[in-house]
TrEMBL record, chain A:
GO molecular function: structural constituent of ribosome
This protein's name: 28S ribosomal protein S22, mitochondrial
Cross-referenced InterPro entries: Ribosomal_mS22
Record has Transcription as a keyword: no
Keywords tagged on the record: Ribonucleoprotein, Ribosomal protein
Pfam families: MRP-S22 (PF10245)
From TrEMBL, chain B:
Gene name tied to this protein: LOC108734388
Protein known as: Small ribosomal subunit protein bS16m
NCBIfam families, sorted: S16
Species annotation: Agrilus planipennis
UniProt cross-references to InterPro entries, sorted A to Z: Ribosomal_bS16, Ribosomal_bS16_dom_sf
PANTHER family for the chain: 30S RIBOSOMAL PROTEIN S16, SMALL RIBOSOMAL SUBUNIT PROTEIN BS16M
GO cellular component: mitochondrial inner membrane; mitochondrial small ribosomal subunit
One Gene Ontology term of the molecular function aspect: structural constituent of ribosome
This protein's UniProt keywords: Mitochondrion, Ribonucleoprotein, Ribosomal protein
UniProtKB/TrEMBL annotation, chain C:
Entry protein name: Small ribosomal subunit protein uS5m
Gene expressing this chain: LOC108736416
Primary localisation category: mitochondrion
Pfam families: Ribosomal_S5, Ribosomal_S5_C, Ribosomal_uS5m_N
Species this protein is from: Agrilus planipennis (Emerald ash borer)
Highest taxon of the lineage: Eukaryota
């Protein structure tokens, strides 16, 4: 009902048409620009890894275990028969508890960090080696038990310079000598803009984000390009529900809040009557941008109204949504009163 | 069917060891394993351990790929293993050992050959131009 | 003698020729002015082996075998006799002539029909030849793969449609399949050996409703109908777990036939005796494994299987029986414990007796264990030649993957080196040139 009210409002006030009701997404040349956490700007990592922020993001993810443990295509050639067990009450509780713990692992949000700086450390320069070779040498240390990021990979240029390899070579060598399952040596075609567009139009967000997590490191510019475009597409099309209860929702919420673009999400939450989540989102906003709306204390729309006045970009639709929400609350209260009166409880 | 990288060759404790290439790959497509083997053993006999690989054919990005297990190489050098010259050259280029004199020699010879080539070419060109003008 | 025959022939030809000449004035009297065609008899020698013998004798030459040959079973693929008169009508021939009184009425309306030469029909000859070609060939009883049964054109495994409706009630969505189709004999006092067709069919709606029955009659069709309709009267309801498999593993027995049935995940298919497979198809079970031990009499197998299906317990019954929660752990959903059924009162851990069967499969098989034969490596893997073979094949170990990769990357089998070495290309088989016949 609330949705229809909002829709009506937006029809009557064309000035305030939010993208959620009229989706103008002409993606002929992918209408989105990449928005990275650039390395010259503010570092999101200390905010993201803060335990309070993490718990807020988890609340926003709205964990539904049925969706977390949804049936996935494992890609196994051999089908596996499920096992059946007889469990007592305690055993069942233990098993459920274990699954709950596992869910936090499955829902671990991919890290949000700055884009890395290019590597240009020269180790030595020996011009006497000029003319030795017509191609570069890449030396990789394959000693056992070294982390990907700490592996020594050096390049001897044709002019005799010995320098550390840049990121793309590093990743190529790591993948070549220590292949990671699912990662490809070359960036798959699906991450090219034209193919990305068709995936986005088909709403294959989870597939796209999962694949990006496997293919790229989180501080790769390409990763941030793909994810940021996906997040913007989701935001414009109001497809938040698709990402709920997945590990990507936290990253999405963080992205939107970091770039001050939470209005669509707030509208969505209001529509579905999740006012407490609106407050959580505003708390996150306060933490990231050092502003205060008193979101921690408010359990109704007070903080939201302050936010609308102070920081919102879509003031009109938000105010109308708040009004619609209030009306609905009032109606419900009246209905409850009426029911109680009918039961003779007053 | 490939033997494990840890090696399957039997060896005596006191025999002389060497770090050297073993040619793998096939006809017209060389590929080398860098291995530790007993000096007296033949190239294709089971090795003590594989410590790296070397692909002498440049790839798409014009790179020759070398992988080296420096930890094990250090261990074997410490145990008195000798290093064959091509491997020494590679280790030198990688910055692990000082650059092998042979590398400098090759580089110098290549440069000289190139210079010679260039000068010959320029001379020929000049001659060509001269002959054309005289005509 | 031969001279004599020849002279007789000549005289006959002569008379025919002259008679044709004689025929002309008669025909001309019937007002033929439009096309006064003269029929001229040619004077070839029309005698040969073919017109000296009657047709039957000629046919016999190519369609029969000697008695002794017949006894040995020879001549089964010999040509059949053709009726060359078929497709021919009196008065209509090669020359497309209209004969009033023979191939057309004499008077049409008020006008007298005239003899007329119609344009020649080139199709006629072709049609006749086609008809004759068809006649001789053996009729093929090959069934289309969709309606084929277990084997060739035999009945078992074939589908014969739903049972006949009874009054208003129709068997919608039902299908009947033949399991057994055999001839049985009975000794009668005055008839002696009496032969009947016996059929055993199973019918079902592919959604858990199924029944089976036998039917006997002298006529095979009647037997099938009887069995089908009887089966429609004996329907049983069978639980299908998640719409694709059995509730749980079970053991079942009828006479000397023992069956171990086990539940399988989606996509596994029906891996079992063909009779069980047919029954499953009719019931609507899609995934299952069954091992038949002992007698493989199909009627017994079907009966045992139905018994087992009917004796299955629901998960709630199992949980109540055990007084424990029945929980499913599946790889698809990351081993999330899914409670299938909970008892009203659950037992504590110390109430479980030490010798109790706690394994679900064991519980379902009622303590039985399926005998599984140990799998030995294939004999040739021990040979030296196998080792040599593996060594020789080693260079192919990633060939297909690389080829797939190159095709995906460049659209064909080439690499970044192809430009440098254009001569190094895989050999391409040139496309086949179309021959004139194909066109």
């Amino acid at each position: 009902m609330c949705t229809t009210v909002l829709r009506e409002i937006c029809k009557t006030f064309p000035k305030y048409t939010s993208k959620q009701f009229r989706v103008f997404v002409s993606l002929r040349s992918l209408g989105y620009a990449s928005r990275e956490y650039a390395h010259e700007e503010r570092d999101p990592a200390p905010f993201f890894f803060d335990s309070n922020v993490q718990s807020l993001l988890r609340t926003l993810t709205r964990v539904d275990l049925n969706k977390v443990f949804r049936k996935r295509k494992t890609g196994d050639l051999k089908l596996e028969q499920p096992t059946y067990k007889f469990l007592t009450d305690e055993q069942l509780q233990d098993a459920l508890k274990e699954a709950h713990e596992k869910s936090s692992q499955l829902l671990q949000i991919p890290p949000v960090i700055k884009v890395r700086k290019p590597i240009d450390t020269v180790i030595s320069n020996d011009p006497a080696l000029q003319g030795l070779e017509t191609s570069k040498f890449v030396f990789t240390d394959i000693s056992y038990g070294i982390k990907y990021s700490q592996r020594i990979i050096v390049v001897r240029e044709t002019d005799g310079t010995l320098r550390h390899a840049d990121w793309d070579v590093r990743e190529r060598m790591n993948q070549l000598y220590f292949p990671e399952h699912g990662r490809k040596l070359k960036i798959p075609r699906m991450f090219e803009n034209t193919n990305l567009e068709s995936l986005l139009n088909r709403k294959e967000y989870i597939f796209l984000l999962d694949r990006a997590c496997i293919q790229f490191e989180p501080d790769d510019a390409n990763y941030q390009r793909v994810t940021s475009i996906t997040y913007q597409h989701i935001n414009d099309n109001n497809d938040f529900e698709i990402l709920r209860s997945t590990r990507h929702f936290g990253a999405l919420a963080f992205f939107l809040t970091w770039f001050k673009n939470i209005d669509n999400l707030v509208l969505d939450l209001l529509e579905t009557l999740h006012i407490e989540e609106v407050n959580v989102l505003l708390q996150l906003y306060e933490k990231l941008h050092d502003q205060s709306f008193g979101a921690e204390k408010s359990d109704e729309v007070e903080a939201l109204i302050i936010y609308i006045n102070k920081a919102a970009s879509k003031k009109g639709p938000l105010e109308l949504a708040v009004q619609a929400y209030k009306d609905l609350k009032k109606q419900r209260l009246q209905l409850e009163k009426g029911i109680q009166a009918a039961h003779g409880l007053t | 069917m490939l033997p494990p990288g840890s090696g399957t060759g039997q060896f005596s404790q006191f025999s002389k060891k060497a770090i050297r290439f073993v040619r793998k790959g096939c006809t017209n497509r060389p590929f080398f394993h860098i291995v530790v083997a007993e000096q007296r053993k033949e190239q294709f006999m089971p090795v003590i351990e594989q410590v790296g690989s070397y692909d002498p054919i440049p790839n798409e990005y014009n790179e020759k790929l070398v992988s080296l297990n420096f930890e094990r190489i250090r261990h074997w050098i410490g145990n008195g293993a000798s290093i064959s010259q091509p491997v020494q050259e590679l280790l030198g280029l990688s910055g692990f050992l000082p650059i092998h004199p042979r590398s400098y020699m090759t580089a110098w010879r290549n440069r000289r050959a190139e210079k010679l080539n260039d000068s010959v070419e320029t001379k020929e060109k000049a001659e060509n131009v001269d002959s054309q003008t005289s005509k | 003698m031969s001279f004599c025959l020849r002279s007789i022939n000549k005289t006959i030809q002569h008379t025919i020729a002259t008679s044709r000449w004689n025929l002309y004035p008669i025909l001309s009297q019937v007002k033929v002015f439009s096309s006064p065609k003269i029929i001229i008899g040619n004077s070839t020698r029309n005698t040969s082996f073919f017109n000296k013998l009657p047709a039957d004798h000629l046919w016999k030459g190519i369609t029969s075998v000697s008695n002794a040959g017949k006894k040995r079973g020879r001549g089964k693929t010999l040509a059949r006799k053709k009726d060359l008169n078929r497709g021919q009508v009196l008065g209509l021939g090669k020359a497309n002539m209209l004969w009033p009184g023979l191939s057309a009425p004499i008077i049409r309306g008020k006008e007298l029909v005239e003899r007329q030469q119609l344009p020649e029909d080139p199709e006629r000859e072709k049609k006749l030849i086609q008809l004759r070609d068809k006649m001789g060939a053996l009729k093929s009883y090959k069934l289309s793969p969709l309606e084929r049964g277990w084997s060739g054109n035999k009945m078992p495994g074939r589908s014969i449609g739903p049972p006949d409706p009874i009054g208003e009630d129709k068997f919608e969505g039902f299908d009947t399949k033949v399991i057994e189709f055999k001839i049985v004999f009975n000794m009668k006092g005055n008839f002696g050996r009496k032969r009947r067709q016996s059929t055993f069919v199973v019918t079902g709606n592919k959604n858990g409703l199924a029944g089976f029955a036998t039917g006997k009659a002298i006529d095979p069709k009647a037997a099938l109908r009887k069995a089908k309709n009887r089966a429609g009267q004996k329907l049983m309801h069978i639980d299908i777990f998640r719409g694709h498999t059995v509730n749980h593993d079970f053991f079942t027995q009828f006479g000397a036939t023992k069956i171990y049935v086990s539940q399988k995940p989606e996509g596994y298919g029906l891996v079992c005796h063909r009779a069980i497979k047919t029954v499953c198809e009719v019931i609507g079970i899609k995934n299952l494994y069954a091992k038949v031990e002992g007698s493989t009499n199909v009627q017994h197998i079907v009966k045992a299987f139905f018994l087992g299906l009917l004796r299955q317990k629901t998960h709630q019954e199992i949980a109540n029986d055990k007084q424990l929660h029945l929980v499913e752990f599946s790889k698809d959903n990351e081993y999330y414990p899914k409670v299938l059924a909970s008892p009203t009162v659950c037992r504590k851990a110390d109430e479980i007796r030490h010798h109790e069967v706690m394994d679900f499969t064991q519980y379902c098989y009622d303590g039985r264990i399926v005998l599984k034969r140990k799998k030995f490596p294939i004999f040739y893997t021990k040979h030296k030649s196998w080792e040599v073979h593996l060594k020789k094949q080693e260079y192919l170990r990633n060939l297909d993957k690389t080829q797939t990769y190159l095709r995906a990357e460049y659209g064909e089998l080439k690499s970044f080196l192809t430009e440098k070495y254009p001569e190094c290309r895989p050999h391409k088989v040139p496309p086949k040139e179309k021959t004139s016949e194909e066109e």
